[in-house]
Amino acid sequence: MAQQYNNPNAQNIKKRYAVLVFIKGSTAPLVLYVKEPQAFYDELISLIQSQKVVLVQKETEGPIKHVAFISNQISAVAIQEEQYI
Question: pTM for this one?
Fold first, then answer.
């Protein structure tokens, strides 16, 4: 059974990407599934670098449907690749 997950040629394994947003004071990141994860990641990076404080609102495709947070509360962001069947 373990071989089916280690086989890179398996036809039924798909990849999806999530943007992880770490909020100051929170123990777990927000795991956000969006249509263009790299573009959203780049947008968040530019907001972190900016001195301007803005409200970030996003409609997502995963279990979290809508999210809003203030840009100056972001401590880190990441893109996570997930494999699923």
Answer: 0.82
User: Rg of the Cα trace of the chain?
Assistant: 15
Asked whether 5 and 76 are in contact (CB, 8 A), the reply is: no
pLDDT score, position 19: 98
Residues 6 or more apart whose Cβ sits within 8 Å of residue 9: none
Whether the Cβ atoms of residue 32 and residue 58 lie closer than 8 Å to each other: yes
Alpha-carbon distance of 82 to 76, in angstroms, equals 19
Could you tell me how many residues make up the chain?
85
User: What distance in Å separates the CA atoms of residue 4 and residue 73, rounded to the nearest whole number?
Assistant: 41
